[in-house]
Amino acid sequence: MNIGIVCYPTYGGSGVVATELGMALAQKGHQIHFVTSHQPVKLNFLNHNLHFHEVFVENYPLFHYQPYNLALSSKLVESVEKYKLDLLHVHYAIPHAYAAYMAKQMLKDIGIDIPIVTTLHGTDITLVGSHPVYKPAVEFSINHSDAVTTVSQSLKNDTLRLFSIKKEIEVIYNFIDFEKIEAIEKDELLRCNLADPGERIMTHVSNLRPVKRILDVLRIFHKVQQQIPAKLILVGDGPDKEKANLLAKELGINEKVLFLGKSDEIRKILYLTDLFLLPSETESFGLAALEAMAEKTPVISSNTGGLPEVNIHGVTGFLSNVGDVDDMAKNAIYILENDQRLEEFKNNAYESAHQFSIDKILPKYEELYRRVIKNQM
What is the CATH number of domain 180-355? Predict the structure, then answer.
């Protein structure tokens, strides 16, 4: 198949998933054309089946905000016509599904009817789409897609609750490519740089936005380290970093907290981690939790959104109500205080992560593509 993929080209979860999906499809022989404003950060062009088409937006003084939607629609028309694309797979309803719909209408004028698959990732629904200003456009974009998927059952339920949806929505989970998870030799020197002998390592990875509740991460750790020697590693950067720094000093744990900022060594850090903390206000899926589990790291998380579909309570970690720092700390201590119990949770996390292997998820997308293309004929 000849597939166009539209996504945000940044480190965000949806962009990473879309890029990994495209690269996996290219490995299977499909021609994949990424149409984005910049080259996706994870995109590897070693495969000749991968192509990138940049959306260029002219800078006109007349416009306070540059008309990216128009530029994207025009580029999609050009790409479909020039490269004979079979379908467009767009990630995020706004602006991508909306721009794809406009491209579809323009292409109809020259006798091309391109099907659109829209994947909803969360923010486009729970935060952006539910705002009255954007709601009509999001609703329209979903209902005029040829197929719609969400990354969790929870997000599907939210979409149906927030919008008047006439389309069938299919749940296709996010995934992990286990072939890319190379066996990482245990780096004792690196571990010594992160923690003292006998200390447990707890980790949180995010963009440090308020929705991630980074202050709860610190409060959980503060309670845990009072009973168990531990270090906390915070990976990422964002608006709540300074608040986290101040709280660490206020709680007297700043010497036990390592702020690593953005890192390309997340996989190695997770491998050395004993427990992953994700007390988010909301998570449409919980890709960070899945990535931790794939590195044999159990998870302490909130029970919101799609997290209960990933983190199995009492098996791969524990779930607590949003903001229940005491319960999360108690569960963390329960896992960390016993070596045998910790090893059992680690093994459970790793085994459970395999249900989200790309080998199981990729065929679902391929089958969906074939069905949509067939229905368009």
Answer: 3.40.50.2000
